[in-house]
Amino acid sequence: MPEEKVVMYESPEAASIQTVTGWVGADGRFWGSDEHMARYCGATHRRCEKNPDHPIYEVRSWCEQCHSDSRAKAFAAMPTKDWEGEPLVDFDGDNYFFDADSLRDYILDGDVNLSGLRLCICEPNMPREIDPSDVFCDDLPEDGEIRDEQLVAAFDLLNEMIRKSEPLSWSQGKFAAVLPQSFLDEIAAEQVTP
Prior knowledge:
Strand content: 15-25%
Distance between the termini: 97 Å
Number of strands: 9
Structural class: alpha+beta
């Protein structure tokens, strides 16, 4: 076995003074050749890379104009479906409507422009069935199974109730809602009436 070389702490071989060149952020952190990170850490605002004519934005954010444009394109590309009374949500928002009256109130009370209304049909978030082997995986022996028939029966009963359960909540679905023309006409008439 070769002998390991011994380098003493005080030895010139242990360390030497070197001159280095690199990017340093406004906070004094040295970034070496990484100009982007030095500027990112030192700046507060920046111009849009896609369109410099857009307003400047905070570095740790995004260009609001580009984001708005991309979300409008995403909504326009969604397949549409006629609304049949399912819960609705405003696209990328958190305003949920569970009936025509709540939607009507939102539009009329908020003076919402019908042409700017972007609604999606919601999909239900259903409770998931529970596998007792997953619940007790840390307690069971490797490749073990639950042998207590009453415990298994209790989980079967619970899972039966879960299957019959109503949705826990609702989330934005994959379809843009097409509101009935009669509903739109009614809203338009009410918006015109003083």
